[in-house]
């Protein structure tokens, strides 16, 4: 199967430790993904700890409305410099996501690399993903600039 890869990089206004701490929380994924996508744990879990070797299942909805199957995330690596997951669902079987973090003192260089394979749908999923990761990184930056450091409603920013 042919794949396409989305590459997006931003400099986040927080140190690598703060960014990594937030990456470990399910609520961060849920916050930065909305409204393009929603991830609801299939087993009803409210909190989880990303663990290397573990597999997680989520009810996935496009734009929070359109059911798009069960999205599975298999954690291959999860450390402060690199997070790597093999992900996918029945519509997009290949969604390999790599997050690279680079310490820049008070800031953190953050890169998403996402390999996508969905047969004839690949180009359409790739276009959606390009906008999705641009959105995610912008929400990350807004969240990190929030003086309270809390997840907040975008209308407050």
Overall SS class: alpha+beta
Order of helices and strands: EHHEEEEEEH
Give the strand order of the largest sheet, numbering strands 1, 2, ... along the chain.
1-7-6-5-4-3-2
Cα(first) to Cα(last) distance is: 42 Å
Query: For the residues shown, what is the average pLDDT?
Result: 92
Our count of helices gives 3
What best-fitting shape do the alpha-carbon axes yield?
globular
Please give the share of residues in helix: 25-40%
Proportion of beta-strand residues: 35-45%
Low-confidence stretches: 151-157
Rg over C-alpha atoms, rounded to the nearest angstrom? 15 Å
Largest sheet, described in full? 7 strands, antiparallel
Q: Give me the count of strands.
A: 7
What can you see in these coordinates?
- By secondary structure, this protein is α+β, with helices and mostly antiparallel strands.
- The protein has helices at 16-23, 26-33, 122-145; strands at residues 4-12, 37-41, 55-62, 66-78, 82-88, 94-104, 107-117.
- A hairpin with a 2-residue loop joins strand 6 and strand 7.
- The longest helix has 24 residues, at 122-145.
- The model is unreliable at 151-157 (pLDDT under 50).
């Amino acid at each position: 199967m042919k794949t396409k890869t989305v590459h997006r990089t931003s400099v986040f206004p927080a140190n690598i430790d703060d960014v990594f701490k937030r990456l470990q929380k399910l609520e961060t994924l849920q916050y930065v993904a909305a409204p393009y996508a929603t991830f609801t744990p299939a087993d009803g879990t409210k909190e989880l700890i990303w663990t290397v070797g573990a597999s997680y299942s989520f009810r996935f909805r496009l734009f929070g409305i359109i059911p798009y199957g069960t999205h599975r995330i298999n954690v291959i690596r999860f450390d402060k410099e690199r997070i790597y997951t093999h992900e996918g669902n029945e519509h997009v079987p290949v969604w390999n996501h790599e997050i690279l973090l680079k310490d820049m003192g008070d800031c953190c260089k953050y890169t998403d690399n996402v390999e996508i394979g969905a047969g004839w749908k690949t180009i359409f999923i790739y276009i959606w993903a390009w906008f999705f990761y641009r959105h995610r990184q912008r929400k990350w930056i807004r969240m990190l600039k929030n003086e309270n450091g809390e997840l907040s409603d975008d209308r407050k920013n």
